[in-house]
Design goal:
Layout lengths: L2 H6 L2 H6 L13 E6 L2 E5 L4 E7 L2 E5 L7 H9 L6 E5 L12 H5 L6 E5 H12 L1 H11 L24 E3 L2 E6 L2 E7 L8 E5 L4 E5 L19 H13 L4 E4 L5 E2 L1 H27 L4 H6 L5 H4 L11 H13 L14 H11 L3 H11 L4 H14 L4 H17 L3 H21 L5
Parallel strand pairs: 4-5, 5-6, 6-7, 11-12
Antiparallel strand pairs: 1-2, 2-3, 3-4, 8-9, 9-10, 10-11, 12-13
């Protein structure tokens, strides 16, 4: 750790950062100093970077719409300077929609800079607002008491559009300080990482999230693990003294940062090479995914825990990119409807009860198969009380062993759907 960083980061925080990470998110409601006149702040889930210059603040990301007031308060707890420039590390909803309270302060509106693909993302969000709201609600566990459906922007005035975009790199000067923006495909195709050479500070957005990288995500558009690995190695090569993360605690100290970034890159490279090798060997998609085994040298690292995404989801994304959407099974090329398939399977078994019995038998030894059978039972006999009760039980058991936020949300949504159906049928959960 460099002397400048040591001077502004409390010793207790520096010590805790050397061990296992306690959570995916940084402590909410704190402005964490990472360099002279620079802080990482977290108002809810995603972090923002605050760089105070002699000409005003450079803000890197601005959170969710509901984060804006708290984010502004955190910024004002460390500096009263006006907001000069806002930089988006990417256009995700938790990073680019909380600017409103800053604008309400009055004064000259800030310059907003982003990669050009952020504009395309905003246009896509507007077109697919209903889908994205549904997908994010499902990822959070589905709607229900205390859990409303997720809002998603659709109108033009709900976006804070960039007024300056760039292609590969852009260098700006604010308050006489050089700030460099570089395009870096990874979780998204519109990602930017920000390099402040005078402070040896890198703001990388979701290129680092204090956990296994979000390079899979079952419900979202293509991710880019190969490019991600290359770009994260490029960041490490700059030997930053501090890295502001999109989620989680900042990284501090050259060697500490290098070890974490290059190890993450190596994990993404391993997954990519495994998947391409399996495609070249002629394996079908399911065999590729179920055959993946994470090496312990990666899987046992606390800072690469699958707390949001999973390696298997990244395998799926690499397959999609290099092998198309067809899974290799001829009957699935132009398949029957899911309802037809399920009804026929259940009928051949003599009713949903046979699936329920077998699912419960397997629940202690093969949860993935138990969940598959319970789902077929529900799809084949949607009014079967026992099928819904079985689905709730086996998916609850699977939920208990799952660490990834994305998978947990999807499992919880299925459980809640069966609970809702039981209520409609006038039956107790069991």
């Amino acid at each position: 750790m460099n002397d400048a960083t040591s001077a502004v980061v409390p010793a207790t925080m520096r010590d805790s950062m050397g061990g296992a990470f306690a959570a995916w998110t940084a402590p909410r409601g704190r402005a964490i100093p990472v360099a002279a006149r620079a802080w990482q702040v977290c108002a809810h889930v995603a972090n923002a970077g605050v760089i105070d210059t002699d000409e005003g603040i450079v803000l890197v990301d601005c959170g969710l719409p509901k984060d804006g007031e708290e984010l502004l308060s955190l910024v004002r707890s460390v500096t009263s300077a006006p907001l000069h420039t806002l930089i988006y590390t990417h256009g995700h909803i938790d990073h680019a929609f909380g600017l409103g309270p800053f604008l309400a302060e009055g004064g000259r509106p800030p310059r907003i800079i982003a990669h050009r693909n952020v504009v395309e993302r905003f246009r896509r969000y507007s077109r697919t607002a209903a889908y994205n709201a549904a997908a994010n609600t499902r990822q959070s566990g589905g709607p229900g008491p205390g859990r409303p459906a997720t809002w998603w922007p659709s109108r033009v005035d709900e976006f804070f559009w960039p007024d300056t975009t760039y292609e590969d790199s852009l260098t700006i000067s604010v308050g006489g300080e050089q700030i460099i923006l570089r395009h870096a495909m990874g979780e998204t195709d519109d990602a930017t990482w920000v390099w402040v050479p005078g402070r040896k500070l890198a703001c990388v957005g979701d290129l680092w999230i204090d956990g296994f990288p979000n390079a899979g995500n079952p419900q979202k558009v293509q991710r880019y693990p190969e490019e991600w690995a290359r770009n994260i190695r490029a960041i490490a090569a700059h030997e930053p003294h501090a890295v502001l993360a999109g989620h989680g605690m900042p990284l501090l100290g050259v060697e500490y940062i290098r070890e974490r970034l290059t190890t993450m890159a190596a994990y993404l490279e391993y997954i990519t090479e495994y998947t391409i090798g399996a495609l070249n060997a002629g394996l079908d998609h399911n065999a590729i995914v179920t055959g993946f085994r994470a090496p312990s040298r990666f899987a046992n690292l606390p800072y690469l825990r699958p707390i949001h995404d999973r390696p298997e989801f990244v395998v799926r994304n690499v397959i999609r990119r290099y092998g198309g959407w067809w899974n290799g099974r001829p009957a699935d090329l132009l398949p029957p409807t899911t309802a037809e398939h399920a009804r026929e399977l259940v009928a051949l078994a003599g009713g949903a009860g046979a699936f329920v019995v077998r699912a419960r038998e397997l629940a202690g030894s093969n949860l993935p198969l138990a969940c598959q059978l319970a789902e077929w039972a529900v799809l084949g006999e949607p009014d079967s009380v026992e099928a819904h009760r079985c689905l709730i039980d086996v998916f609850t058991a699977r939920l208990a062993d799952e660490t990834a936020y994305q998978a947990r949300g999807i499992y919880r949504t299925a459980i809640n759907a069966s609970r809702g159906r039981l209520a409609e049928l006038g039956a107790a959960e069991g």
